[in-house]
Structures are given as structure tokens and as C-alpha cells.
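User: I'll paste a sequence; please echo it back and then give the predicted structure.

Assistant: Echoing your sequence first, then the prediction.
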Amino acid sequence: ARHGAMQIRVETSQDGPLTDHYDPREQVIRLSDQIYNRSSAAAVAIAAHECGHALQHHTAHTMFRVRSALAPSSPVSASS
């Protein structure tokens, strides 16, 4: 909220473990069930990491733009 990124949603991902990510096209943070439904230090760290990507996107951080240009995000699916 402090950075004005109020439109970002947080959703669970049903695609299995290690599918946590920020989707800049849809402005949504998707967390696997193992992360979304736990309150361990590791789960909080992973969620915070994805929030960091969302803030980088929102503030047009240079390295986020470089990373996005080099490796555009693609939909994650269980069949990938």
C-alpha cells in the first residue's frame, strides 16, 4: 500500500509445489498451497520474495525490466 500497488491480488496456485510466482501481466501473486496455507518462516520468506517482484514491477525497477525483457513470463501449467 505504501508504494501504491493496491491492485495486486494474491491467489493460490493449484499447479503443485514450486509454482510460486508473480505474474506481471495479470498483476497477481500466485502461491502454491504449501506456501499459501502455512505460516512457517520459509513460507513467509517465499511470499515476501514474490511481493518484492510485484513491487519491482510497480516501481519500474531497472533490473525487473531487464529480467522481463530477457525472460518474458509465461503461463504456468501442470502440463508444462
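Confidence is low (pLDDT under 50) at residues 75-80. Strands lie at 9-13, 21-23, 28-32.
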